[in-house]
Amino acid sequence: MELKVTTLEGKDAGSVQLSDEIFGLDPRADIIQRCVIWQLAKRQAGTHKTKGRAEVWRTGKKMYKQKGTGGARHGSKRVPQFRGGGRAFGPVVRSHAIDLPKKVRALALKHALSAKAKDGGLIVIDQATLESAKTKALIGNFAGLGLTSALIIDGAELNAGFAMAARNIPNIDVLPIQGINVYDILRRQKLVLTKAAVDALEARFK
Predict the structure, then answer these.
(1) With contact defined as beta carbons under 8 Å apart, do 167 and 174 qualify?
(2) How many other CB atoms are found less than 10 A from the CB of residue 38?
(3) Alpha carbons 187 and 40: distance in angstroms, whole number
(4) pLDDT tens digits for 108-148?
(5) Residue 126: how many CA atoms within 13 Å on its side-chain side?
(6) Vertex 110 angle, CA 175 and 154, to 5°
(7) Eight-class DSSP state of 162
(8) How far, in Å, CA of 205 to CA of 3, rounded?
(9) What angle do CA 134, 11, 148 make, to 5 degrees?
(10) Distance between CA atoms of 115 and 129, rounded to whole angstroms?
(11) 6 sits in which H/E element
(12) Is residue 167 within 8 Å of residue 128, measured between CB atoms?
């Protein structure tokens, strides 16, 4: 697959040959969904907690005698049916993470990249660099490229000026190649890769 390469200013910078094994697959929604569920489950804090009857500070003395009151039989005031008692089967601190094989994760990333390429949401630029961290200038560059919602992936090292200028722009995410993931690819309309990112992806999946 051949794709045109542009600069940040929108000028032509040649073309790049993309691997069909990474960008030319027929996207499978089921594999992509599995990876998204895995990502979202893994990042859940799991810090929700309520007190059970053993953790509530109330007397454990029997409320009243067993017989002769005409009422139901009760013991401790810590039981769930009374106001101030413990919660029955309440949430506890736990991990929501689920397992997903590495091969499935890698395949899901390929299918997400292929989905963007198939939908015309993939853009390749020569480099993502700015001499000075000026957000206004970068907004103008993005307007020229038609980027309003985009994930920008650079090489192993981000350009400091570009990253600082982009972090104040809504719906624009900038990540190094190590941080590329299925969920962030799907949540933005466009995926912007630098030449360095393309080379790193092809080296990663060789």
Answers:
(1) yes
(2) 20
(3) 13
(4) 999 999 999 999 999 999 999 988 889 999 999 999 999 99
(5) 11
(6) 20
(7) H
(8) 19
(9) 55
(10) 27
(11) strand 2-6
(12) no
Distance CA(72)–CA(135), nearest Å, equals 70
HSE value, Cβ hemisphere, 13 Å, CA-based, for 38: 18
Give the span between the Cα atoms of 44 and 141, in whole angstroms: 36
Token digits of residue 19: 């691997």
Q: Which two tokens stand for residue 115?
A: 């989905």
| CB-CB contact of 16 with 29 (8 Å) | no
Positive or negative torsion for Cα 54, 60, 63, 65: positive
Say if residues 93 and 49 touch (Cβ distance below 8 Å).
Answer: yes
Indicate the SS3 state at residue 85.
coil
Give 10's pLDDT tier (boundaries 50, 70, 90). confident
